[in-house]
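Continuing the series of single-chain predictions for the mutant panel. This is the parent chain; the variants come on the following pages.
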Amino acid sequence: MELSDIIINRIKQEGPVSFHDYMDMALYYPGLGYYTSPGNKIGSKGDYVTAPYITPVFGAMLGKQIEEMWRIMLQPSVFAIVEYGAGTGLLCNDILDYAISNKNFYQSIRYYIIEKNPSVNSFAKDGSIHTTTIHHANAIEDIGVFTGCVLSNELVDNFAIHRIVMDKDVKEVYVDYNNAFTEISRNAFSPLKEYIKELDIHLSEGYKTEINLDAITWLQKISRFLQKGYIITIDYGYLSEELYNTRRNNGTLMCYHMHELDDDPYFKPGRQDITSHVNFSALHHWGKKHGLSSCGFTTQAAFLLSLGFKSHLHNIVSKGKDIVKAALHEAIVTRTLLLDMGQRFKVLIQQKGIRQAALSGFQLHSEVLM
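Parent structure:
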């Protein structure tokens, strides 16, 4: 049975479902959702490309920043790196390839993978030199209380979101079916109204946007199990002021299929990625409420440049025999990660139970979060 048929049958039996529940089924329905069905969704043959697929230097820079965190924490003998949504494991292996040059740091690492797609969960068992360092977990509860760093790259934008529209009061978008998927609006439930009130968001009548309550739940859960350490969140998004700007009065929902961008989330559910921009103000705000303080917030470009991205990249590509080819590759990677993706993607780092210390990733720039 197609996933669309399953969703339609649920609507016929139970009535309209919230867009949140529709998106959750489209992305994560067991065996049929976009992220739970067989096949790799990332790369040239997939639907989109992430930074680790462009160059291993991205992972090396994250490894460098995490190594500094380990030093700030007085070099604990056991240091957990918990990566959510590791996919095929490129970023994991690039970070560990960097870390292996520091014996003490490398030996302290316990790298935990939390990945919902069972078809890619065996990547570390096939040919990786880091097999003994990498562990798999279904959820952070399986790891227990730990000290270290939680890492996510392009994760939060894929959490199921609630779509809202501002009428005289806040309305939530629901999905109905009548020969095709259609949208209706109902009174929003209290957590959505509280979200808007707490962040002091003001929306004009007719304004349509998204609210990611699952991101708050995710952060709350991390704060329960992270005894001491850092959280690195890399994704595309904005602070509230920019995210809910009048220019975005139809929201930020996007869909990806075979590297094509679309705005129709009802096209073949389970066959395309559905995303929305992350509200970093919300992560900062609710992080503070759960014992997390923000170390810095900046663009991916500023973060990578602060850590020495350009010199590290040049050292790697210059080892090639073809100088012209190496220079071209260096230019393409630099443009992609520092210009194309570099301004759209942001980096937020939060910490818990650690003395305040400047992080190298924010040397060039960091916004003040209120």
